[in-house]
Design goal:
mainly alpha
């Protein structure tokens, strides 16, 4: 299933925004290199296409396209990133917050 928001991902329920992003970022870092290269290449192609639209526009259309670049980019790339990383979310969550709990217990 594709998720457009990290709040909807079952493995990340109960975490605040910063914690969810930490899990997503750590999971993305742990992706195999070919998968990372493919994901980053896909993101580059998407952003390149969006910037070509802006560059070819005239007049006020430039402003419209420029305002659409960030939301469209995020709308396309976030679900793909979540889908690729989803298998690692529960493991990374346990690792990150197990470390935090043990560090708090030591204090």
């Amino acid at each position: 299933m594709l998720y457009f928001s990290s709040q909807k991902i079952p493995e990340l329920q109960g975490l605040n925004f910063a914690q969810r992003m930490q899990v997503v970022r750590t999971s993305a870092d742990k992706l195999p290199t070919p998968t990372k290269v493919g994901l980053n290449t896909l993101k580059l192609i998407i952003i390149f296409g969006l910037f070509i639209l802006v560059a070819r526009a005239d007049g006020w259309a430039i402003l419209g396209y420029a305002l659409l670049v960030a939301p469209v980019y995020m709308l396309i790339t976030r679900p793909i990133t979540f889908a690729l990383c989803q298998s690692q979310f529960s493991t990374v969550r346990q690792q990150l917050f197990e470390q935090n709990n043990s560090a708090q217990n030591d204090d």
